[in-house]
């Protein structure tokens, strides 16, 4: 049996043809861009076409595009452990101690995780008796070493280096007139009334030291503790003086000529005037006399006719006034024809009071050669 064979040379052209049908793959292109942490990146690529030969001898060409992606880059933040915390029981940087829940204002470790020490403002139990922080060592505060309270008003020691005028225990203000809050002799009964405990607010005689005086008034001053009012009886023993001279004599004591500011103030003054146990100064010895209120520091603002027949008080008769245009009260019922027009600047009227009724009976103005009413006795009061 003969087998036909194709010549070898006949196959050569077919092989060449097959090779020619296979195209050269194009070069692959890769483009990428990147800009900083926030830039997007992209990649564009083309792979070589794939050629396959089918069973019937035909060829199939294909192109596969590389995937393209665009997106923001991701940023990763590193995490750390928990922040240092005073009170967690762990000794961290900046802490001298940390006893956890044992940190306290009275313990060895303070709430700020610092070792307790004198001057930190905390009283370390068992180690310190007091601690006033930066004020340690100052008058009225803890000693510099926190071993106890330092010099202060109320310790029973007269500390002249700190301008104390009194500091005796137990308190006896009727003897020394001491203001227990400042350890100085009170300037007025109002100051005493504001500083004394309730059980020591007893109306009576007190020494006071008015502002500007070289020494305290050791006798004669009567304190009405209900109103905090200061009274002093002044009796010359016979010589009479107008209001201007009475003002000067009161002023020399650090006081001023009396005028009542309210009805209660007036009634308290009447009680003092007729109290025989309240003795005067000035040389006289008349104790029980409503005449102490016969001259008052209430003057016409403008001499002449003014508020005639009106009640004599600051609200109803503003044409008359007390020193410094302050409130005054003589009565709430007017007097016919008074104040009369024959009054003068700095001149007091003559006043007549009923001690039993504790009210004004009459008052009248007169010139008296330009000096007004005169008296040998009057009341002084604290300066407002």
Structure overview:
This protein has 384 residues and is α+β, with helices and mostly antiparallel strands. It has 3 domains: 87-150, no CATH class; 160-222, no CATH class; 228-382, Mannose-Binding Protein A, Chain A, CATH 3.10.100. The protein has 5 helices and 17 strands. The protein has helices at residues 8-20, 173-176, 189-195, 243-251, 263-273, and strands spanning 31-32, 43-44, 50-53, 59-62, 178-179, 184-185, 204-205, 221-224, 229-235, 241-242, 255-257, 299-300, 320-321, 350-354, 359-364, 374-375, 377-382. The strands form 7 sheets. A 5-stranded antiparallel β-sheet has the order 7-8-9-17-11, with helices on both faces. The chain has a two-stranded antiparallel sheet with strand order 1-2. A hairpin with a 5-residue loop joins β3 (50-53) and β4. The protein is elongated. 27% of the residues are buried. The model is unreliable at 1-79 (pLDDT under 50).
Q: Strand share of the residues? A: 5-15%
Cα end-to-end separation: 158 Å
**SSE order, as H and E?**
HEEEEHEEHEEEEHEHEEEEEE
Structural class: alpha+beta
Name the strands of the widest sheet in spatial order. Answer: 7-8-9-17-11
Give helix % range: 10-25%
CATH architecture heading of the largest domain: Roll
**Chain-averaged pLDDT:** 84
Number of strands: 17
CATH homologous superfamily of the largest domain?
Mannose-Binding Protein A, subunit A
Which term fits the overall shape? elongated
